[in-house]
Amino acid sequence: MQVSSLNEVKIYSLSAGRSLPEWLSDRKKRALQKKDVDIRRRIELIQDFEMPTVSTKIKVSRDGQYIMAVGTYKPRVRCFDTYQLSQKFERCLDSEVVTFEILSDDYSKIVFLQCGRFVEFHSQHGHYYRTRIPKFGRDFSYHYPSCDLYFVGASSEVYRLNLEQGRFLNSLQTEASESNVCDINPVHLLFAMGTAEGKVECWDPRTRNRVGLLDCALSSVTADTEIEGLPSISALKFDGALNMAVGTSTGQVLLYDLRSSNPLIVKDHHYGLPIKSIQFQHQLDLIISADSRIIKMWNKDTGKIFTSMEPEHDINDVCLYPNSGMLMTANEAPKMNIYYIPVLGPAPKWCSFLDNLTEELEENPESTVYDDYKFVTRKDLENLGLAHLIGSSLLRAYMHGFFMDIRLYHKAKMMANPFAYEEYRREKIRQKIEETRAQRVQLKKLPKVNKELALKLIEEEGEDQQISKKRKQKNLPSLLKDDRFKVMFENPDFQVDEQSEEFRLLNPLVSKISEKRKRKLKILEELEAQGQEEEEEPEGKASDAESSESSDDEKGWVEEVRKQRKLLRQEEKLKRQERLKEDQQTLLKPQFFEIKEGEEFRSFKDSAKKQKLMKKTLEDRLKLEEKLGTLNVSDTTVGSKQATFKLKKSEQQRKQQEAEKRHRQERKSLRRSASHLKSRRGRGRLFH
């Protein structure tokens, strides 16, 4: 059982912990409970309170004995008997259930609205009857006095099915293109439906006429809310005769009094997700609204948050057990969650032992597991010199860091910085001394950071005080005394850079004013150094000097801007000249490039040509090679194309081929001369 607390409200999660398989023997279950602490501490309030894959809707019968839930896969309904704390029956269905309603006090009469436009009726023994509505349904409500079922969905009509006569009646024609939800007031039986256009239409079932229209989409948009698109109605719930809560698809909940077209309060979930469920808790005047991510409980009069819960998995439906502090949710997970909040009310009578259990836990609070561990990041481990422990059993990875034993952390910190305690002690002593000094009568001292800005604020404050005295107005608070701006006069990172280009152009007359303030600063520093008491700060010059100065400022503003721009240009020019001098002084060193074997360097232009050629497409390269003669394209007898490539020869290969050619020619000429000499010798012998 997990315990969480928000706004000092204890929330007990009764479904936390691992569930044991059904096929395990009792002996193995007992052995696991001895070994595993989580299994030993878990509370299985209702046996097998889960679905195979996902649970979509959950409801409690009016007598409080049965809890019914629908889910997938396969589509099914499960009924749990709270008196036996176990499952009573399970029935599989032909298609997924959109929503269902328990018509009787127990489980004997149930109506299911299914995805395939089917409406299925179940009795105590099982399936009873099945019919179909003309359009796909999204929600329905049961009108008890007339035994009529009102179906809303992907149509402008509201279909009525009378269960006493067993036939469809004339439908209600609305102005909406589609309707999402509907509800019937339990007191005066007013029928209300929420449309896709963000409106709520109210109908009187007796006369079958529309009696009211609320534009909730317009009312949900306030100054603090940001929405994308038109909000449609996703949830609707009546509370008593006059109150009605409406949930929108953009995450707002509007509480209405039926006598007014304006909402009493608008509550935003700030997640932008459709509101799935709205419940009323009358003991504490709370509204429990839920989207797929969070369950919020808030006061219906003030809108103040009471508490909230964020389950691990997305929420599909929320059910509040009547007259108790138990809350159940259907989730995008097999297990359905059960929460017990003692502040909302007592535990149900079938699990009254929860009250004693929670009282014992509050009397003997146990320290959480995280009290013995310290969360550290990777940077903290490097500073402590423990980065080599990453991956070992001493560190447990969690989110963006690790959990480590608090004793190991303290030891490592002492070894990394043995004088940390002494430094901490000195800092505390210094703070105590400064606190005692603050109680003494002090001089008006300027801060260490932004002294000129502080002096300017003091001067303006003095002028404002004089004006307020004359006009008998209240003095405005000083920025120097405001805690929100004290970091600006303490942290050196907030020091105003008066030499920057932006400051000089935005404040062209600051140079004249700053000179006067610098003189005052020098005087104040001298007074502080001598330890003299500082008199009240001067309020400025006389009225005639101020009037002349204002006229000079009006005339000289443009000249001062030009002067500052001229100075900035000169400074930029000087910087460029210095850069040029530095470039001239730096010696350029030669760079060497390596050439591959078998290649000969020609020029850098060849490499540039190669790069340009590689960027071209294959078609362009083939055309270029065909022009140069290295490619020959011809048609074959079969009808296909034949391409013949000639490789380019390097300069070394070309020289080698020329040398071989000359060598062959020389050998040919030698053979010819030798054969010619032989023939001449033979002729000479014949003549002799």
From TrEMBL:
Keyword Cell cycle: no
Top-rank taxon, per record: Eukaryota
Comp. bias regions, Acidic residues: 528-538
Coiled coil: none
SUPFAM superfamilies in UniProt: WD40 repeat-like
Residue stretches of biased makeup (Polar residues): 632-643
InterPro entries for the chain: Beta-prop_NOL10_N (IPR056551), NOL10/Enp2 (IPR040382), NOL10_2nd (IPR056550), NUC153 (IPR012580), WD40/YVTN_repeat-like_dom_sf (IPR015943), WD40_repeat_dom_sf (IPR036322)
Major subcellular location class: nucleus
Region spans: Disordered: 528-557, 632-688
Ranges for domain NUC153: 482-508
GO cellular component: 90S preribosome; small-subunit processome
Regions of compositional bias (Basic residues) in chain numbering: 664-688
Alphabetized UniProt keyword annotations: Coiled coil, Nucleus, Repeat, WD repeat
Places the protein is found: Nucleus, Nucleolus
Annotated ranges, domain Nucleolar protein 10-like second: 369-417
Biased composition annotated in UniProt, kind: Basic and acidic residues: 648-663
One GO BP annotation of this record: maturation of SSU-rRNA from tricistronic rRNA transcript (SSU-rRNA, 5.8S rRNA, LSU-rRNA)
Family annotation (Pfam families): Beta-prop_NOL10_N, NOL10_2nd, NUC153
Domain (Nucleolar protein 10-like N-terminal): residue spans on this chain: 1-364
Family membership noted in the UniProt record: Belongs to the WD repeat NOL10/ENP2 family.
The protein's name: Nucleolar protein 10
Gene coding for it: Nol10
